[in-house]
Amino acid sequence: MSASTAERGRITARVTAYAQQVIERAAEMTATTTNQFVAQAALREAERVIEEERIIRLHERDANRFFDAIDNPPPVNERLAASLIKHLEARNDARDRVTTIKWTPRPRQL
Questions:
Q1: Spatial distance between the Cα atoms of 13 and 23, rounded to a whole number of angstroms
Q2: Count of CB atoms situated within 10 Å of the CB of 30
Q3: Are the CB atoms for 66 and 58 separated by under 8 Å?
Q4: Within 13 Å and on the Cβ side, how many CA atoms surround 30?
């Protein structure tokens, strides 16, 4: 998928002379232009950062505790119920006005 000139953005950066020399050398070694090299490297790093922020890694023990809490949540306490009621009333949504909170999780579908 190629982008037309109108679909492209521009990013500029000021770097030290040393950084420029290293980047240009690496670009030559990969047979790309400096712009292509910088754009590809920045894109790879941006994708890595986004993936790192979206994925939660847990040890097996912690994952089991998490899933158990989802499957078997503690009952809603009075303080939480009062907060939920206050929130629903603040939304001023008649269909959400309730006087009691009863919630049970749906069974997990595998």
A1: 12
A2: 12
A3: yes
A4: 15
**Rounded distance between C-alpha atoms, residue 73 and residue 108, angstroms:** 13
Q: Could you give the CA distance from residue 26 to residue 32 in angstroms, rounded to a whole number? A: 9
Q: What is the pLDDT of residues 7-64, one digit of tens each?
A: 888 889 999 999 999 999 999 999 999 999 999 999 999 999 999 999 888 999 999 9
Q: Residue 36 and residue 42: Cα distance in Å, rounded?
A: 10
Query: Rounded to an integer, what distance in angstroms lies between the CA atom of residue 22 and that of residue 38?
Result: 11
DSSP for 40-66? HHHHHHHHHHHHHHH-----HHHHHHH
Question: What confidence tens digit (pLDDT) does each residue in 67-77 have?
Answer: 999 998 888 88
Paired tokens of 59: 């040890």
Residue type, position 18, single letter: Y
